[in-house]
Amino acid sequence: MAATATPGAQAPPAPVGPGDLSGEGSRGLPDARSEPKQLPELIRIKRDGGRLSEADIRGFVDAVVNGRAQGAQIGAMLMAVRLQGMDLEETSALTRALAESGQQLEWPKAWRQQLVDKHSTGGVGDKVSLVLAPALAACGCKMQALLEQVGCCIVGQSKKLVPGDGILYAARDVTATVDSLPLITASILSKKVVEGLSALVVDVKFGEAAVFPNQEQARELARALVGVGAGLGLRVAAALTAMDKPLGHNVGHALEVEEALLCMDGAGPSDLRDLVTKLGGALLWLSGQAQTQAEGTARVAAALDDGSARGRFEQMLAGQGVDPGLARALCSGSPAQRRQLLPRAQEQEELLSPADGTVELIHAMPLALVLHELGAGRSRAGDALRLGVGAELLVDVGQRLRRGTPWLRVHRDGPPLSGPQRRALQEALVLSDRAPFAAPSPYAELVLPPTGAQQ
Question: What is the pLDDT of residue 299?
Answer without folding.
Answer: 97
